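W.,

You were right to be curious about this one. When I first looked at the sequence I had no strong expectations either way, so I just let the prediction run and decided to look at it fresh. Below is the sequence, 209 residues in total, followed by the output.
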Amino acid sequence: MSSSHANEKKEQGISGRINNFMDQQRLERLKQCQEIDVILKNCLGRRSELRNNKTPTEPALDIEHSIPGTRMMRYFGWHEETPVSQESTSFSSLLSSGGATQDVTSRNAAAQQESTTKSSSSLAIPSCAKETHALWACRSVCLACAEHLKNVKDCLDGLPNDVISIPETAYEPTSYIGLIPCRQSQEELGKCVIQQAKELQKRLNRNEN
């Protein structure tokens, strides 16, 4: 074996280990997004029950009590407590771990207790739009789709604040033909996330073999 060929194989080995490490980092970051996914599913469940005039079986989980959720709210400018200008919302800050991730339920304890004292007739039906946008934003940051996320944010920034009251989104394929704000930008982000997730899974499976 020539020295040049040996050096090439060595470089490929180093490159492979670096790429594998980066993929593991992406996977760990995606696990943080699961916290927002739990909150979104909770919201969608409550939305369905309230629309059918039923008392929600689960107390509400507040995305503002979630570390990764709060980061996404700050990025979009929807965080209720801290103005965006007071904290960096760069993509690097969105990726930071922010300390150990706490259990969603424990951080929402106060909100849960309050919600259980209210009847279904007094509860507003949630749109779950903030939670949906936050989940796909979190995924996009982890999967190198940040450019598409910026396009979505720029588009939403140009619309009235009540855009988050519209429940329909287009990150996943949908047959809904009504108005979806920034539909094209959402579709492009969703396609990027889904494709990158598939490719990441393929690489992880290949590295395990």
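Here's what jumped out at me. Residues 82-93, 95-102, 109-120 have pLDDT under 50 and may be disordered. And, maybe more interesting for your project: The helical segments are 3-51, 67-76, 91-95, 104-107, 109-115, 129-142, 146-157, 183-208.

Coffee later to discuss?

I.
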